[in-house]
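Give me the fold.
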Amino acid sequence: MLSINRSAKVVKGGRRFGFSAVVIVGDKKGRVGMGQGKANQVPDCIRKASENARTQLVNVILRDTTIPHEVLSRYDGAKVLLRPASNGTGIIAGKTVRAVCELAGVRNMLSKSLGSNNPLNLAKATLKGLLELRDRNEVMKARGKSIPEPETATTEEPIAEEPAAAAEPVTAAE
């Protein structure tokens, strides 16, 4: 669960409260989804948001434990910069971006939230950024190029070099 928001409507008998929740679900293996639910009771809105999130699951392209390349994503006023990081870095991100990336299966990543800090818009911007990721094979295929195969190491024996003659020390003439 990412956030719960309470809203109040003033009626003749007093205030009537409503709740909205944003929930992120994921399998930590490249599938993540976000859902939003509204109801008059907190448990009901969380349940609705969870069901919605499970129907919205999408696949995210990962490279080992990080993302394949840097991406800047926008949703409304929220901007999120996502950068790959080396092993052992962890997820350097705020609460919202961290939740989305952890559930997507990313373990090493750097991020910076620019603009709005609204949790719903940040989550949507992060999810949009993760969906924009492409791996090398996909890009090469889209360009109509073949994927170069890695070169195999040759097993030729190196040519033995003869040791150089010992040089005599040179002294400066005075």
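The first strand starts at residue 3 and ends at 11.
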